[in-house]
Specification:
The protein is mainly alpha-helical. It has two helices and no strands. The chain has helices spanning 5-24, 28-44. Helix 1 (5-24) runs antiparallel to helix 2 (28-44).
Length: 46
């Protein structure tokens, strides 16, 4: 079973975004907002 490149990129984007959100997010809503911001920023860096 081959894993395509886009799925791997999304996996790493999610891991990096989750780690950054856990470190920078202040509360529940803040963590979600930081996760979304990091996810979008990493999507721009193709």
């Amino acid at each position: 079973m081959a894993i395509n490149k886009n799925a791997m990129n999304n996996l790493f984007r999610g891991l990096i975004s989750g780690y950054g959100a856990s470190k920078l997010g202040g509360g529940c809503v803040g963590t979600v907002v930081v996760f979304i911001i990091i996810w979008l920023l990493l999507g721009q860096c193709n």
